[in-house]
User: What shape does this take?
Amino acid sequence: MKKFVKIVLVVLGSVIVSLAAAEGLSRLFLDPIDFLKPTRVYDPVLRYTIEPGTGAHDKWGFRNRAVPARAEIVAVGDSHTYGISATAEDSWPSALAEMRGATVYNMALGGYGPAEYFYLMADKAVRLAPGYVIVGFYLGNDLRDSFNAVYSVGLWERMRRPGFSAKDADDDDEPGESGAGLGEWLAGHSVFYRLVSSSFIGDNLRQMRRLRRGEEIVMFEDPASGIKTGFTPERRLQGLDLEDPEVREGLRLSLEFFSRMNMLLEGTSTKLLVVVIPTKESVYARYIEGDRSLPASEKIDRLVSNEREVNARVKEYFDAHGIAYVDVLDALGRKAGSEQLYPANFGGHTNGSGYRIIAETINAYLEKAE
Assistant: This one.
């Protein structure tokens, strides 16, 4: 019995030492901000924020090493500006900072929408006295996010119209959430654990969980162009279907928030620029639209058609109200058949290559405006 106990203790000790060594090596070669899961906490206006310092985030709870005294550019947005599916250095705000040799502060969080963008701009972004506030406007769910914010947060009550009630936010892209248990603790404290759980294996497990829940994922492969990826047209259509009164209301509210952002900066030295970010389905539209061999092809076509309509209405509104914008759809679409821009799974966020294209498109606009 004593011999057995000794063997168990030796094995247990070896495992602990091995895990500690793996964690040490992970932190030596990898940046914790790219792996540790931050803690989400309740906020009465933003609905939730990141607890400062968790997940290696800064004292304001954003994905930066520190809050600067001043930033030439402040980027505000959701997970597509935060940089999901890429390291912090490969997010488009960081890529833009490298291109311009400027300080770009990333003030983005998954699940946020135009209501949060406006509030953050007024509450924090202007404190950094930027030359530009660049807002990432993701067409895939920002309309729905505007609706949910206005119809659930008291601050926006006067913007509401009769006949609507709030639904749960489409928050599957949030980088952190409240929770308990060993897995949650490890996610927030162990780089090695997150390295394993966020790997290719982890992505496949997440995709399998979504499929078991009944979520529709359409896999697509085009050997001629090297495209291999997955789409979620049903989910994205929920945020873009103009036949849905809540989506139409969300579009109205989104445009109103952008008008408020523009008015907030009028007469100041800070300029507003909106970056219109498309869905993955629209980026690959020339490959998948009208392809009846694909499952859910009708939903794909409806999604792409609705997004075109929303895109056109947004640009028409921006032009009429003097709101500067840049649309990155064409730039991403041109590279879709020659470069891997998205994960080879259900993920709807671009990888580092896609974020760099977004940054290059923004930089080209800024250089032309100078």
